[in-house]
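Support request, please re-run this one:
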Amino acid sequence: MTIDDPARPDTAEPRTTEPATAGTQPAPGPAPDGVSATAASDGEPPAEPGSGARPRGWSALRPLVLRLHFYAGVLIAPFLLVAAASGLLYALSFQAEKVVYAHELEVPVGERTLPLSQQVHAATKVNPNGTVTAVWPPAEPGATTRVLMADPDVEEGRSLAVFVDPYTGEIRGQLPSYGGSGALPLRTWTDELHRDLHLGDLGRNYSELAASWLWVVALGGLALWLGRRRRNRRSLFVPERGPKSRRRTLSWHGVVGLWAVAGLVLLSATGLTWSRYAGENIDVVRSQLGGATPAVSATLDGAAAGGSGEHEGHGAGHGAAPAQGPDVGIDKAVEAARAAGIDGPTAVTLPTEGKGYVVKETDAQFPVHLDSVAVDPADGTVIDELRFADYPVLAQLTRYGIDAHMGVFLGLFNQLALAALALALILLIVMGYRMWWLRRPGRPAARGAWRKVPPTMLLPLLAATALVGWFVPMLGLSLLAFLVVDIAVGAVTKARSRNRDRDLTPSV
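Re-run finished. Output below.
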């Protein structure tokens, strides 16, 4: 038996190997062909030789799950390790951003706040070449106002944020800003590192591959851990103590994975929504189920109809034309929005040709406040309203999941939870490689494990695998690659075995 054999009591001490003496059984020889030396590890023991009994249920499925978990762990773990390390940096960047950019973000609290129009004017004076697209009033006393501009010197997809003291009109600084959460350069850098390693579309393949396999590895590991035989339930939730050994490492690996599995699966699912290939399939399914995220309509009467096309409050990006005609001004627009129930932290998108103001709540922390209204710049009337409570349930759940993945859903607690999950995943990967190293040259399960699965289980499993592989292409393609590698390794092993047998066969 191996040191992690479930047939042994969890509290058993490691045994030393003693030479065989009279009255004792000699050490067992090599395992028969097709039976792994670790076949009984972490789950049900194999059927007795010659019994003719075909494994059923989990006993039949376990070797297949173990082999898949092993291959995914060895070959996909490097991608998961990079994703976990960069995700850890991203989770910590929220608080680091407040320290690094404290001068731009914070000001002494004054007696009265200047009108937003004056603050916008102050921002345009320091950057006359920029086009104001949105304004973020201060979310709390002592915070600065952000005036977002489309600037030819700023990378496309980003805005130039001019930070204005709302009490004095002083310009506190200018920084590129990205996304609806207003990520500044430090957080933007870690976000791009996590998403694509700063390699653009090519780098996004790494993060999609990691997200595609994370839930498979996590749920497979959970099944293997729950399927182990154990003397008491405590060892299911608490790692065992004792001298350093593969058995103790396995205990830590299983317990840490058990506590982290729900969060890891959530990260995998929400991460796939941003992916290139699986993300497109997810969007199609969401639309067909009526779960697409709605947007307030800011189209003015007489303008060409069409979807808002706005994302994260930055509808007026590079090249957007400012609105022409009468304008009540940003202060009147915000006043109309407040009267319509828009409260708390807000973002104001300025009107463009054929569209009015959009004033939306930006409080993504639970309980979220994400209502929005559109205001006609000609007379300050509210022309459309959208309440978060009116979102389809699937759209609400999607928003919750994405905000949790981004670390804004529960504020600091959310960010600490992300950091803990990242550390847990790093620890799981390191312990997994350690167990592999300690077990060498053993195998996790014999090849051909699928042959032991009854057809009533195998056929639905193959159909489900094909469907998931089509829906999550990076998972399907890499799984096919695993099969090719496994077949090639098996062929090489058989060829070496035949050559070795031929060399050992005495000539007549």
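Residues 1-51, 304-319 have pLDDT under 50 and may be disordered. The longest strand covers residues 171-177.
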